[in-house]
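Hi R.,

Here's the chain you asked about this morning:
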Amino acid sequence: MTGTGSLEGGEALLDRVFLNRVLEPGDETAGRWVREYGPATVVRRLRDDTEPPLPGVGPKRWEGLRARAERADPARDLAVAQDAGMRFLSPGDTEWPRQLDDLGDARPLGLWVRGPADLRMWALRSVAVVGARACTEYGAHMAATVAGALAEQGWVVVSGGAYGVDGAAHRGALGAGGATVAVLACGVDRPYPRGHTQLINRIADQGLVVGELPPGEHPTPSRFIVRNRVIAALTRGTVVVEAAHRSGSLATARAARRLGRHTMGVPGPATSALSAGVHELLRQDDAVLVTDAAEIIELVGDMGELAPERRGPVLPRDLLRPGARAVLAALPGPRAARADEIAREAQTTEDDAVARLYELRSLGWVERHGDGWKLTRQAMMTARTGRSPC
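And here is the predicted structure, written out as tokens:
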């Protein structure tokens, strides 16, 4: 199950796995070393205590990296991964998602993957749905509903596997019989949080579980933050469903914006602290307000995938011809008015107004009162209930 399809070959694969164990995800200095010197040279410099430190780090940090290098065993990591049903992807593999290259020197050195699907193909039509861990019932409902509808339309839902909005999004996609990817901040052989072990194993069976960290590694607060850049880069857009002002999901959205991806937010109650971060994102960061999957697909989808036009219910007066509607609107509520007065208000001739009034009378909207015209009782009720006077 390991990534033997790399264009770099077997030794280069071992070098990548070695560096994946020694270097922290998102380390741009280390990414620059790999880009400028190549993985093999960086591995040699880390392993050989006679080599000087690579540029950009002080002696203390270099000593820490060398200590990690002494314990690294890439062959063992690959064996553990194979036993756990994992594979390792390197940049250049046929399954490598090319959009991750947009991260520059912060690009992952490689990815560990569990699951039967092709990550590159799934990522081409994917949307991130992220948000608060301690979400409300509203947030969980919106995440599950949006994710399920996206999945039904053939979109892959990507999230972080966490409690709250993430878990609701994954379950919504799975419940719709669709595709979902969990991007973890730990080794993908150790589901986190523990309470989501069953969910994450189900995702691995039906979808994909992805992570940068090698087998057995645990999450830390900083690893959650750097993980979010992968979610942002992997997908065509990020939707935030509930987020407080300091929520990590806002970091995902802002990373998406920096990468030129679509950034979207689902609004919540103005009084909810868990929606305050989303509202700030919508006000200050050029995010787009969305309320359902159709509006999301309109942004991230291909040309022509437009959301349906939003309209209120069709009222009986909407079915009248424009001239008749104008005359009806000119009648002054409960009192009667002469035809010439109605014509002036409707900005038409008296003869045209009379013709429209007789038309409206036949439909039950108005009635004659001596020399004047007034709304029928049923028509005035219609203004309150929306039902036809007939």
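One quick note: The radius of gyration is 31 Å.

Cheers,
M.
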